[in-house]
Structure formats: C-alpha cells, structure tokens
Write a structure and sequence with these properties.
The protein has helices spanning 3-14, 22-29, 33-45, 75-87, 96-109, 112-119, 139-151, 229-237, 257-260, 286-294, 306-322, 328-332, and strands at 20-21, 49-52, 59-63, 155-158, 175-185, 188-195, 200-205, 210-211, 247-253, 268-271, 277-283, 300-304. It is of the alpha+beta class.
C-alpha cells in the first residue's frame, strides 16, 4: 500500500471510533508499530490533532481542532460527499447555494479520473404526485435545534400558525419543549419533542420554529413511545400512536396476483389461484379504505371486517346518487 493511500486509510479509521490502540491499527493495516507512529506524525504535520496515550493499552485519538486542516478523502469518500452535495437542495435545509459552491470547489481539486466519474452521474430530484412541496428551513435554525438536542437544553420558541404570519403582527405564546430528535421526510424537517405545557409528545415543523434565546434549563432525556423514533414518527404521520393504520381490511379481487402487486403499495397480496387473489390493506378511515380497493376496477368480495362491508355499502349509495338523472327543473338551471 502506497504511503498516501495508507495515510488516507489511517485517517478514515481514526474518524470511525473514539480510540484506536496502536496494535489494532498496525494489525488492521498490516504494518509495523513503527510505521503507524510515522504515519501519525505525518498527519500531525498536516494539521490533524491526534492525541496519543502510552502504556500497553496505549493508542491514538483524533481530536477536533480550532482550524480546519486539509481534508483527505479516498476516491469513494470524495464521490460520496459530492453526491450528497448534489442532492442537498432536495433536503430543504436552506443550503442549496452553499452546497453548489462546495461541489464546485471539490470538483476543481478532484483528479481527472474522479471528475469524469462525477460528471457522468447526473441526478434529478422529482417529486411524486401529491407529495408535499419542500419547505425551506434556515441552516441557523437546524443548528440551533441540533445543539439543544445535544446539550439536552429546554427549547424556548415561537410557533406561528400554518399561515406563517409575521411575528410583528401575530401574538405568539412562547412554547417550551424538551427536544429529542431531528428528522427529515419528503423535503421537510421535523423536531420530535416533549411539550412541557401540554405534557405530551409533539411533532413540530422545523420551518415554523423560531427559537428564543436564551434556551431553558437542562433536562433528563425521555424515551419516545415504543422506543423507536422512526416508528413513532411514522405512526404520527398516520394519525395514530402506533405505526399501524387504524382501519385494516381485506377483499378477494378477481384479478391475478401479478397484476395487483405492482399497484398494491403497502398492501399484502396473496394468490388464491391463477385468476383471483386476496388483498389486505389499511387506511385512516373505512370509507377511504373501501375507495382505495375500488381503484382496481375489478369484481371483488369483501372478506372483512364488518366495518369495511358497511363502508362499501355507504360508498355504493353515494355513487348511485351521483349518477342519478336530476329532475327536469334541475337540468334547466345552469
């Protein structure tokens, strides 16, 4: 392994964990302890602050410095960062212009072999029909929220209504919450937090949060219901306390299973024979679930539960009324 390549590998390893015993580094790289020490000294000369501990369990730790030393990436790391910068505007984090400038800087110093690979990777972000429009949140707000989560400080903030009224024309009552986690979904950023005044978990749109300074007192972190942030947020998006649709039912579709599966989404398709299959799915209401089954435009039999059967009857009456020929007087009114 060439010296430059080995230095990149040492630096990459130091960034993946807090402490690296010298013997483990030497074994990982297949080099001697002396070579490890020389490589550490070279990285220090480049500006990287690497702390060494002595003794049989001695090792090395990469510490943060006051100045940014030269960044060294191997080929895969450089491409990964470049791809992340290219797709950053789709995150709605207010860093689109900075990401484009950073990408230009990286491309300029890339060797030709990497520039060609990067230039051949064209990425276009396309929103799905019905997907929410990305909401831009300032980088300053995201950093402020992340810091309160890290420091376990109570967040004091204003939270205007959906209309986004200006704070000067809208009277806002300061909110107090214990921030737990930042997440992004479909171009929008959210904060999961325990609302101290409502004594309940809340999901806040980060683009509507206006932090107040100073922050509040420190707190002991709580555990989100179920213990999994992703599952908890997915449940809230579905209007439930658990990550499951409140209404679930199944039908027998008079269609072959292969024709149903591509359009079943989260539904579960089970073949009965070559011409029929069962489809189980969920939704936020029985009426919406019945309407969703109807999108397959095929004969079907309701398996259950009774609530789904009743919803089909309600929809049938509603659709029948929609096609009823109006009275003569009604037709003449335009």
């Amino acid at each position: 392994m060439a010296t430059t390549e080995r230095l990149l590998t040492v630096l990459s390893l130091l960034q993946t964990r807090r402490d690296w015993p010298g013997s483990v580094l030497a074994a990982r790289l297949g080099i001697s302890h002396r070579t490890v020490r020389r490589d550490i000294e070279r990285l220090r000369e480049m500006g990287y602050r690497i702390h060494a501990t002595r003794g049989p369990d001695g090792g090395y730790r990469l510490e943060s410095g006051e100045e940014l030393p030269p960044l060294l990436f191997d080929d895969d790391q450089a491409l990964a960062v470049a791809i992340a910068l290219r797709t950053a505007p789709a995150l709605g984090a207010g860093i689109g212009e900075a990401a484009i400038r950073a990408l230009g800087t990286m491309r300029q110093v890339m060797p030709s072999r990497l520039r060609h690979r990067l230039d051949g990777l064209l990425v276009t972000t396309v929103r799905q029909p019905g997907e929410a429009t990305p909401a831009t949140v300032s980088l300053e707000v995201l950093v402020a929220l992340a810091q309160t989560i890290r420091d376990r400080q109570t967040l004091r903030f204003d939270y205007p209504g959906r209309g986004g009224a200006d704070a000067e024309t809208e009277t806002l009552t300061p909110r107090r919450a214990e921030p737990h986690h930042l997440l992004t979904s479909e171009g929008r950023w959210y904060l999961v937090a325990w609302d101290l005044d409502r004594e309940d978990w809340r999901l806040y749109r980060a683009d509507r949060i206006r932090p107040r300074i100073p922050h509040g007192a420190r707190f002991a972190p709580r555990t989100v219901p179920g213990g999994d942030v992703g599952e908890f947020v997915a449940a809230r998006f579905r209007g439930s306390d658990v990550n499951e649709w409140p209404c679930r039912g199944s039908v027998v579709l008079h269609l072959p299973a292969p024709e149903v599966r591509p359009f079943a989404g989260e539904g579960r398709v089970t073949a009965i024979d070559e011409h029929t299959c069962t489809l189980e799915a969920g939704s936020w209401s029985w009426g919406s679930l019945a309407a969703w089954f109807g999108r397959f435009e095929a004969a079907m039999d309701v398996v259950g539960p009774p609530e789904l059967r009743a919803a089909f009857a309600t929809l049938a009456g509603r659709y029948a009324a929609a096609v009823t020929v109006p009275a003569a007087g009604a037709r003449s009114r335009r």
